[in-house]
Amino acid sequence: MAKTNFKKNNNNKKKLYIWGTIVFLFLALAIYTYSGVPSLDELENPKPPLASRVFSADGELIGQFFIENRIATDLDSLPPYVIKALVATEDRNFYDHWGVDIPRFFKAMIKNLFSLSLREGASTITQQLAKNLYSLKEGRENPLDKAVRKVREWISAIQIERTFTKNEIAELYLNVSYFGRSAYGIESAAKVYFNKRAKDLTLPEAALFVALLKSSVNYDPVTRYETALQRRNQVMYNMVDVDMLTEDEYNRLKQQPIQLASEKLSHVRSEAPHFLEYIRQQMTTLADKYGYDLYRDGLNIYTTLDLRMQRIANRSAKKHIAEYQTLFDKNWKWDSNKSLLTDLLDKAIKNDARYKTVTSRDAKAKIYNRLKYDVDFVDSVKKIAQTVEVGFVVLDPKTGFIKTLVGGENQNFGRGLNHVTGIRRQPGSSFKPFVYATALENGYTPASTVLNQQFNYNGWSPSNAGNGYSGYETLRWGLANSVNVIAGRLTISDMAPPYQVVKFAQRMGIKSHMDAYPSIALGTVEVTPLEMVSAMGTFINSGVHVDPISIIKIEDRNGVVLDEFVPESVQAISPQTSSIIVDMMTDVINYGTGAGVRRYFQYPAAGKTGTTQKFSDAWFVGVTPTMVAGAWVGFDDHRVKFTNWYGQGGRAALPIWAMFMEGAYKELKLPLKYFTLANGVEMATFCKESMNLGDAKLATDACPETYTDLINSGKAPGYCEIHAGNGGRIIHENKDADSEW
Asked: Under DSSP, is residue 683 helix (H, G, I), strand (E, B) or coil?
């Protein structure tokens, strides 16, 4: 009896140990499982990484910043067949289960036990959402890890069902799922694959996306078209199977091919890559200030870019640079620049990964010598060095808005050097308007005369192009013909002292450091193209400089405004001076160094050409009554230069400006406007026969030649200009006459 009781006690203890072990393991598994389950707050406020989108001023998507290319969309904006195709294929009991479909799970287990090749999934849409949202990822798992992951997935799915409605679950699922080709979310997928909004998807296109949910690799429509087509049709047939689509509709739709927007689907391209990179740089700085993540927070960034103008600028720059590259290649001779090539090769080899990855001196020497005599490598170094580069930018001078930006010859590469914001080069003669503006601010007029003869000022003796010299000439004539000696005489006198030129140029928008030397008259300072264009815009904005701006507004993923931007402005010079300078610069185009504009563009325009020493840099910066734009053309290495006259600003840079303006005004139907003189400035015109001030007569019916007629004739003799802001002084252009009006 005692033995029997002892055995019973032992059996009870064994059962207790077994059940205790089971309970312990279950609790341990539960604790381990729940440790990876998201919190209630995470469930209620899921924040999947979203791409930040950049929009143009006219509402078009310029580009995106993302780690995962994801854009959110509302379920209500999607066609109803998107959800129908999803439910019919992925989870037919979606609207009936509570997150886990138990009958389906056991059916799948039985099928999988007896199938050696095919594996049937049993995860519901909610379970797949849990896996996508909370990193409950599959991988190389042992049976225990797989079981734990599945339990976590179930628990999360149940919690999601308790937190969200079915429609909210479906919407979130479509926004976080991966569709291949770097596209997360159906909105991004629609853009990448079909270049359209998700709301505009057709049924076959929606079915393709549901197919991609099963495997974006196996059903990739680019690399595995036939497989993708079959799977897409299977998705549509699933809709027939559950009475969501008729058989006739299916038979018609399955005949449609998969028509993608492009075969290059690896990334979202931009028509303004350098502008987009400029935005990224600014947003990175702002992110440090405000604490948001450009690549994950799904920001909406609204910019100043006019995409219509950008396309015209891209076309104009591409056409001209292609022509100039051919011209340069014909004229450039490496045999005459052997020392330069030796230096370029040395730098290229030492920066090459093959050279940098080896450590021994002998290995480096072998690689160095091999690359030095490698024809393909040498040719690639030559090609890079002799690539003609371009920077072109358009601004609205009244708002400071950057309307267009072409940052380089390669318009498909946004991370390359931005030749609008990222280079500083001497502007040459395109800087002269700031020197002449200083003289006008000091009381001189366009008809003031300066001796057009060489001088020597402490060893500085500039010369004119073509060594052409004459006697006394007016400031108007000097600017129109870009006469170096006249500009130089301004800075060595009290007409435009260098320190004053620097002061006015800074107020007008030149932020780069400038030394106050007399040679500033010839543009020997170094500036960025953006600074030059922004400063030149001051002249057509009544002397008010407005800082350039590219970002208007930033919103978070929910449309809440985080920040808005307004540019700073300052009255840099007087309205009278600014309007007179513009009037003087019209002569640059009408009969001066910028006359080439008229081969393309017939509307009112003013501007200034610029060419630096030995044809290193070519510039043209010009204005219309509503826009200011500038083009720089040159090379990344200063030692590579245009070889002769074709490197002048009027030839190498001006055509880009002129072709853009012609396209913008005609294609966008911009209104015709004229330059106007500021209050306090009047222009009086005299008959060219009236050479003496005493008997000078204003133009009448008997003497009809007007100032404009004379200018257009290219002669412009015998007229007077009244600058009322200068005490009403009148200066006759052709005579040394000066009297009070």
From this structure: strand
Tokens of 301: 């960034």
pTM for the structure as a whole? 0.71
Active-site residue flag, 90: yes
pLDDT, tens digit, 9 for 90 and up, residues 213-256? 988 888 989 888 888 999 999 999 999 999 999 999 999 999 99
Question: The tokens 């991988």 sit on which residue?
Answer: 139
The token pair at 271 is: 């028509």
Count of CA atoms in the C-beta half-sphere (13 A) of 160: 31
Q: Per this entry, what is the length of the chain?
A: 741
Give the active site residue among 56, 90, 123, 579: 90
Reading the block at residue 411, the tokens are 């318009």
Is there a contact between 233 and 219 (Cβ–Cβ < 8 Å)?
A: no
How do residues 347-369 score in pLDDT, each as one tens digit? 999 988 788 877 889 999 999 99
Query: Any idea what DSSP says for residue 570?
Result: E
Neighbour-count burial for 639-651, b at 16+ CB within 10 Å, e otherwise = ebbbeeeebbbbb
Which residues have CB under 8 Å from 531's CB, separation 6+? 509, 510, 511, 512
Which of these is catalytic: 52, 56, 316, 429? 429
429 is known as an active-site residue: yes
CB-based burial label for 633 (10 Å; 0-12, 13-18, 19+)? buried
* CA pair distance 306, 286, nearest whole angstrom: 23
